[in-house]
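Page 42, continued from yesterday. The earlier attempt failed because a stray header line got pasted into the input along with the sequence. Redoing it now with the clean sequence only.
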Amino acid sequence: MNLLTVVKLSVGMSLYRVHELKNEHVPKYFIYNQSDLEYDLSGVDTSKQANKVIRTADNVTVVRAGDVVFSLISGKAAVVTNKHEKYLLTQNYIILSTDSCLESKYLVYLLNENASIKRQFWIGMQGSRVLKYTLKQLQNLNLPVLPTNDRQKLIGEIYFKQQQLKLLREMNVKRKYELGVIQLKEVNDDERR
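This time it went through. Structure tokens are written below.
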């Protein structure tokens, strides 16, 4: 089954087309970025930098909590959390609106992990110089046979919990390494005295 039979795609907008204003009375938007997507996927905030902010009176594309967002840069998808509600979406991201036969978290699992979908993306990138995903690749994706909605919900929930656990483990390993380096520095400093 083609992705477009169960999903509607909406592309973010180019920032070059947004008329930025300095007026504090016009709406302010944070720009959705890769760190936001990683947070939405794992539930863990690892970003150390603030989002870019833009003020505009233009009609812009914003994300809503529960939207599935796909990054054309990384090829990863996530479900937008409440934290990123109403963030402005650039042309590097696509919103995938699902119908009732496809659960959002299950769709994220398929886009990020399914071997058949990964192969379709890989084939679509053959011959391209820039490794960037495209709208056309998404439009041409064929999905595997979908399980029942209950099974999709279960798989999607487990997948998101696994993403959170994976990131927490990686952070723990990094902190242990950093602690070890600090301890080695202290031992080294003690030897010099």
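Notes: The chain has five helices and six strands.
Reminder to self: strip header lines before submitting.
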